Structure formats: structure tokens, C-alpha cells
Amino acid sequence: MCAETPPVQCSYLSVVTRHTMTHQRKIDATLLSGELVFTTSRSGGPGGQNVNKVNTKVTLRFYIPESQVLTEEEKEMLLKKLSTRLTNEGVLILSSQDKRSQLQNKEAVVAKFEAAVANAFKKRKARRPTKPSKASVEARITEKKRRSEKKKWRKL
Fold first, then answer.
1. 111: domain CATH number?
2. What does the alpha-carbon distance between residue 134 and residue 114 come to, in Å, rounded to a whole number?
């Protein structure tokens, strides 16, 4: 962190630096409800004859580049963090067919969506490099010496 940019305190988020987004809001399905597209189809999950008759599989599509609710910064972050789960056009597609009813599958796919978005916006903990302790370095070196002595005796 730079010395000239002090951290900014947000009301519902811990400390955020000025190098990243200066504010962060909770983004969930209720905020983006107008931009989520749900489609239903027949599923292969449990349900017996019900599976063959009723469209219980729910597929959610979220067009990230065309979102009116998200800022450009948020769109870039989602496109970067969820890149492996997006289509070439930047569409996030999630589906659920685990439950017997369409409503339960819709709730499950919304939960998956919220988890994916929350995970994308979660700040990663920086890795702090550590050095091995003196005792472990010493133990490794003495073990190497012992092993080399053993191999020397084999040659004699």
C-alpha cells in the first residue's frame, strides 16, 4: 500500500484502498432481477414421470457487458474473475435440475448466481512469503550430510 493514499472506511465493508474501488455495494439477484433471464426445460433429475412431463430445469443467463446496473469497473472485474464460466459474448449461464419442482430449481440457480458473484467480488488475501525456520534448515542440512555419509560408505 502506498504511503500517500490512506485507506477509506466504508460502512458495511472493511478497509478498501483508493487503488481499488472506493466503495462497494452488495450485488445480488434482487438488485439485478431485471437483467436475469430465466428459461425452463425438461430435466434429467429426480421426479419419475414428472420429469418427462414438466419443465423443471431452470437456466439463468446474465449478460454482463449489457448490464445497466453494474458500473464499468464491476463489469471488468466480473468478466475477469468469471472468465472460465462465461461464453465468448460475456454471458454467465448457470442451471439447476437437482430438485423436483421448478420453483426449487429457480431458488437453487439464484443461490448459485449469488455465490458466484460474491466470490468474484471477494478480496483475495495476499500471500506473504515466509522463510524456513533456522531449525528446519539445520535439520535438512544435517539429514543431507548423514545421507551423503551413508552413500560414501557404500562405495568403500
1. 3.30.160.20
2. 46
pTM of the model: 0.62
According to DSSP H, which parts of the chain are helical?
Answer: 49-53, 72-81, 102-121, 134-155
CA angle 85, 89, 90 (to 5 degrees): 45
Domain span holding position 105: 25-123
In tens digits, the chain (156 residues) has pLDDT values of 444 444 444 333 333 333 344 446 677 677 777 888 998 888 776 667 777 788 888 999 999 888 888 888 888 988 998 888 889 988 999 999 888 888 999 999 999 999 998 888 888 889 899 999 999 999 999 999 999 999 999 887
Q: How many domains does the chain have?
A: 1
